[in-house]
Design a protein that fits this description.
The protein is mainly alpha-helical. It is 86% helix and 0% strand.
Length: 100
Amino acid sequence: MARSIESRIDSLANRDRLLAVTFTVLMWTTLIFVFIVASANAPSSSFSLILLISMLLLGVFNTASTVQMVRAYFANKVLIYEQDIVNSDLDRRARGKEIW
């Protein structure tokens, strides 16, 4: 039985939100790892401080942009996902496959 387009839009939006959260967590994990490794080899504590500030700035700005992207996607999810779903359904029909 075919799912409603609204439920499919919600499913795609939720998947994209999960991916955004996952990539943000992985980014922070990588930034922290690189900071720990780099600060262990830093020639001075002031260099470590510069590394810390750089890491925090990069992480905060990337996290903020990801949060804003997810908000924009949820605010406009019908506009963003509906045409993709329609095109996907047309492609499946053309290939003779069942639509959801």
